[in-house]
Amino acid sequence: MTAHPPNTATAVFFAPARINLIGEHIDYTQGRVLPASLTLGTRVTMRPRADRQLSLHSVNLDESLQVSLPLGAQTRRGHWSDYVCGVAWALEELGISLAGAQLEIESDVPLGAGLASSAALEVATALALLERAGRRLPARELALACLRAESDWVGTRCGPMDQLIALYGRCGQALLLDCATLESRVIDVPADGAWILADTRVHHAHASGEYNARRSESEQLARAAATGGREMRSLRDFSSGDVAAVGASLSPVLARRLRHIATENRRVLDAVSALQRADLPALGALLSASHKSLRDDYEVSCPELDAMVELACVLPGVFGARMHGGGFGGCALILAAADRAAQIAETLRERYERATGIVPWIHLCRIGDAARRLR
Questions:
Q1: Are residues 279 and 360 in the same domain?
Q2: Which of 25, 162, 166, 211 is the most exposed place for a label (fewest CB within 10 A)?
Q3: Which of 82, 162, 199, 297 is catalytic?
């Protein structure tokens, strides 16, 4: 942690949203994941205040709120401001004395689409508050502070992937991230493949509770593995034989959850190999297998996501597709030939609307750089 004079001038910070090429619902089980940062993201404009107040304004929602520092005695409101307040609280917990600021927040990330809009807000806010206080944190420590804000203050028991990719992303590359050790390495993403996000525009109200339920189930599995005497660092180390052996002593539901965790970890490593060979058909097949596992074994899909994936996979030029993010709505992620991507997006938009009566949001992804100060 380093100290600098407090900033008394206006500054603007950006943190990116992300896609996760593959490795869904395994970051909180210490698995390996393969995210990439996007050019979409959140901007926070910081203007100093002379008092110890945080004045918050969301441009997108046209909502404002004011809170007092320090935040230790306050509680969450069930409101978008919780992410900002949680970051302030987490930084104060590290011994950083924050100064008053006006924070204006603007984002082009669709809420509830599974693109880590909350992590983008957390990281951009953290950079702004640290700048105002004249402090600096290493990227890893900053990511973990933002993770604590989301898990301990907001109450979403997520893994570290979203905050880390917001701080480590690189243009044109994905990040193979080990969520057990937080070690990472960059993986080039072939330019002849296009990544298409297709938002179903469906966001089921039970998603947050079901996400935390899957987290609890994974903890039950970890305890069962330890009781069984298997000396493994995490569930990701399970082979197919281990899954079969442990699964016999589990409920059918937990056996399915374990099978997804083990096979998804294997798919991440296979996806890295496919990327290194620039083998887009092999990579697409892994995405489609991931969706089947998320739908059937982890049970986090929904009819609209299944429809989007099925409609995409029959289109010429599509290599594969899967649900993306926490599930129960949100986006599908589609891998397609770059020279056909625009036509695929338009056809998919028409067919999904015809099938469901819902107009989707379709986005051709651009992989961008990590969080930074813009000016």
A1: yes
A2: 211
A3: 162
CA dist., res. 34 & res. 290, Å (int): 13
Domain count, the chain: 2
Q: For the chain, what is the radius of gyration of the CA atoms?
A: 21
Spatial separation of the C-alpha atoms in residues 259 and 174, rounded to whole Å? 25
**Same domain? 91 vs 210:** no
| Chain length of the chain | 375
Each residue's pLDDT tens digit in the chain (375 positions)? 677 667 778 999 999 999 999 999 999 888 999 999 999 999 999 999 999 999 999 999 999 999 999 987 667 788 899 999 999 999 999 999 999 999 999 999 987 778 899 999 999 999 999 999 999 999 999 999 999 999 999 988 788 999 999 999 999 999 999 998 999 999 999 999 999 999 999 987 666 788 889 989 999 988 877 765 555 556 888 888 888 888 788 999 999 999 999 999 999 999 999 999 999 999 999 999 999 999 999 999 999 999 999 999 999 999 999 999 888 999 999 999 999 999 999 999 999 999 999 999 999 999 999 999 999
| Sequence-separated (6 or more) residues with CB below 8 Å from residue 270 | 282, 286
Of 233, 215, 111, 235, residue with least CA distance to 158: 215
Place of tokens 């660092």: 233
Domain span including residue 342: 193-364
Cα separation of 239 and 255, whole Å? Answer: 13
Q: Does 162 qualify as catalytic in the annotation? A: yes
